[in-house]
Amino acid sequence: MAGSLSRNLRYDGKVTIVTGGSKGIGEGVVRVFVQNGAKVVFCARGVESGKQLETEVNSESHEGECYFVPCDVNEEDEIKNVINKTVERYGQLDCLVNNAGWHPPEERIDDVSAESFKKLLNLNLINYFLFAKYALPHLRKTKGNIINMSSLVAKIGQLHAVTYVTTKGAIDAFTRALAVDEAQHGVRVNSVSPGNVWTPLWDELSIASGNREAMIKGGEESQLLGRMGTIEEAGQMCLFLAAEATFCTGNDLLLSGGAELNYACKSQLKQRTNIYE
Ligand SMILES: NC(=O)c1ccc[n+]([C@@H]2O[C@H](COP(=O)([O-])OP(=O)(O)OC[C@H]3O[C@@H](n4cnc5c(N)ncnc54)[C@H](O)[C@@H]3O)[C@@H](O)[C@H]2O)c1
User: Fold this and answer.
1) Cα angle for residues 83, 96, 1 (degrees, 5° grid)
2) Ligand 1 mean position to 25 CA, how many Å?
3) What local confidence, expressed as pLDDT, does residue 256 receive?
4) Is residue 11 annotated as a catalytic residue, yes or no?
5) Domain 5-272 in CATH: superfamily?
């Protein structure tokens, strides 16, 4: 669009898929990419919230645009449909942001069935694998990039979250392995690891804890910066990886407010051995 350069759009005309883009971190990515000129296809299960966000973002005077495609990322055919619709509509693909995922409420290994772990692996990990698999033939043509939403807890662990932490650790390994394979095609593969970012998922978990206020306060105080991150900050970090970090592949960027730093009285966690009391 005329005048784009003068407005310093950082991802002008670049076609981007964001999974789980209807709310939370994915919504932040959709908004920031559109504000920077991208043509964003986003998917989620909830048709109403997806359509609502599409209308709202497109009615604001941005240079880019967004388009919602309903998709349950547990379903391979629906994943293929998102990729096909994107290429049909825009003719190319420059960036895939794998973001859709879920964190179960606190649970101990004693209470987790193999079946529920397999379901979480399917949702959090296989979904990223399938999106990458079907996006790559198009990304190789544009020398595009993939950004996988991982988590700080993949590096430092988290109380009563063995299955979730494991899925995110696998995403880190997947990111590095795919970066190795795809470098020959000029495709970069990186990840972002949020600590605490305030989203509907975070709110859902705080309600499930039974002590919402205390959990939110604890969540804020876990960061050196004394607050949670925002979905806009998550979008900005993804935009940096997509638009400017052109010599980075296989990297993981922490979006954590310094939560991983400083010794603390972690053995106090022993006092919380029974999460159901
Ligand atoms: N919020 C945090 O503090 C935090 C921290 C670390 C990692 N993460 C990761 O960031 C990602 C987004 O988390 P969030 O907090 O924004 O979550 P959220 O629940 O607020 O939003 C998740 C998005 O994924 C979509 N989604 C979920 N299941 C889906 C399915 N089966 N099919 C299609 N779409 C589906 C939802 O519709 C929604 O758009 C997740 O991968 C999560 O693990 C979040």
Assistant:
1) 90
2) 7
3) 98
4) no
5) NAD(P)-binding Rossmann-like Domain (3.40.50.720)
